[in-house]
Design goal:
Radius of gyration: 26 Å
Number of helices: 10
Bound molecules: ligand MTE, molybdenum atom
Distance between the termini: 57 Å
Largest sheet: 5 strands, mixed
Shape: globular
Strand order of the largest sheet: 4-3-12-7-8
Number of strands: 25
Length: 440
């Protein structure tokens, strides 16, 4: 009896005129390899393959021992899609627009965390947050100016900016209102999808600042966007001279318009709001500007009536993405728990997972690479006993900070809190295997 490998090797040397004979041979081999696969199991596979309401019956014909139809004729010619898009079978893997968000010019969309693998968010699925719509910027007419407490005020074209030596770094970006404190979010995307992670390319801000010559009295830089919101935030000079980037590319290609084309600020680990998109102006100053977005918005009112002034760094957080809301564990038995963790303060040092609503915890495996201020993947093998329960994950970062539960967070911050909710996300598992947000 030939092994599968031998079949493949001999078939590849056969001339085309023997194709039908070869098919027959493969059919026999395929039938043999199916020993042990039961009828119902096959039927289930056929059903699972059904997409777009295309009859499962037709697709059954594509299953072993038959040759699938896509093998019997060539597909569209190479180059028929100059800019590639995902398979039509993945058309539901899209950014989520909350029904409550609607398509206002000030709105957001969420990254489908539960559908993604690895640590890089594809550009088309990176979360969005715009306060004044997405400007249509002609890069030839865009300028970045630096002025204020500098020796040489400068205005750069995009071409000039790209002449500086560049760096490429992987960092997450998270909105300060991810997820907010409203009880909403059936899926991981809906609950916590205002976070994404990308490989960013650009010029270190400190390089450009050295060109302008920052004066000793400079303590802050006020960054302003070219969008209709003219989003403006004050950034401490220490951060500007540390790892701040003027980014023009994301995941190898130029920024998408919604991510700040042609140039944005990227402040690793800081709340997303401060990474000004469509960046047009950097005003070097001695005092923060106290703009709307750093006073009435993005500040945290505390129970004593005072508000925390600036938050800057996003604290450690994690979320289980599989199994997660609106997914279903097919049957009791092996079920790997997978998820993502990140911290604005550096590397994730550990993630613990509980399958009994926080009574006991098991340390999960962290998947390489574990990068500073980037999304880190964790996984934990688990045997689901088929009983209802609640699963959750808890991140610890390299500073020793441990992700809190929502009750602990609210006990400190009080009920009028809006931003910087890094609480754990509990998923409830029903006896049927259905997973739902335990807080809903
Ligand atoms: N110019 C400008 N920059 C901006 C914003 C904006 O509306 N305008 N939104 C901010 C907010 S609140 C966040 S969370 C991030 C979102 O970046 P993204 O849309 O690339 O995910 O951009 C920030 N930078
Ligand atoms: Mo944000």
């Amino acid at each position: 009896m030939p092994t599968k490998r031998e079949v493949t090797a001999s078939a590849s040397h056969e001339p085309d005129k023997h194709a039908s004979k070869r098919r027959e041979f493969l059919r026999t081999a395929a039938t043999l390899s199916l020993v042990g696969v039961t009828g119902p199991a096959l039927a289930r596979q056929a059903g699972a393959a059904s997409v777009d309401g295309v009859a499962a019956v037709a697709e059954t014909g594509n299953l072993p021992p038959n040759l699938p139809e896509w093998t019997s004729k060539p597909g569209p010619v190479t180059g028929s899609q100059p800019y590639g898009t995902p398979s039509r079978h993945e058309k539901n893997v899209i950014r989520h627009l909350r029904p409550t968000d609607k398509q206002y010019i000030s709105s957001s969309t969420r990254s489908p965390l539960q559908e993604l693998d690895g640590i890089i968010t594809p550009n088309g699925l990176f979360y969005e947050r715009h306060h004044g719509g997405i400007p249509e910027i002609d890069p030839a007419q865009h300028r970045l100016m630096i002025h204020g407490l500098v020796d040489r005020p400068l205005i750069f074209t995009m071409e000039e900016l790209r002449r500086f030596p560049s760096v490429t770094r992987i960092y997450f970006l998270e909105c300060a209102s991810n997820p907010g404190y409203t009880v909403y979010g059936k899926t991981a995307a809906q609950a916590n999808g205002l976070v994404s992670c990308a490989e960013w390319t650009g010029v270190p801000l400190k390089t450009v600042l050295a060109e302008a010559g920052v004066q000793a009295s400079a303590k802050w830089i006020v960054a302003e966007g070219a969008d209709a919101a003219a989003m403006t935030r004050s950034i401490p000079i220490e951060k500007c001279l540390d790892d701040a980037l003027l980014v023009y590319s994301q995941n190898g290609e130029r920024l998408r318009p919604e991510q700040g084309y042609p140039v944005r600020l990227l402040l690793p680990g800081y709340e997303g709001n401060m990474s000004i998109k469509w960046l047009r102006r950097l005003h070097v100053v001695a005092e923060p500007a106290y703009t709307r977005e750093e006073t009435s918005k993005y500040t945290d009112p505390m129970p004593d009536g005072k508000a925390r002034k600036f938050s800057f760094y996003m604290e450690a957080k994690s979320i289980i993405t599989s199994p997660s809301g609106e997914q279903r564990i097919p049957s009791p038995g092996f079920c790997e728990i997978r998820g993502i963790a990140w911290s604005g303060h550096g590397k994730i040092s550990r993630v613990d997972v509980s399958v009994d609503n926080g009574q006991t915890w098991t340390q999960a495996d962290l998947e390489e690479p574990v990068l500073s201020r980037a999304i880190t993947r964790f996984r934990m093998p688990w045997n689901w006993d088929g009983k209802p329960g609640i699963i959750l994950s808890r991140a610890t970062d390299e500073t020793g900070y441990v992700q809190p539960g929502l009750d602990d967070l609210l006990a400190v911050r009080g009920p009028s809190y809006v931003y910087h909710n890094n609480a754990m996300t509990p998923w409830a598992i029903a006896e049927s295997g259905e997973v739902t947000n335990a807080r809903l």
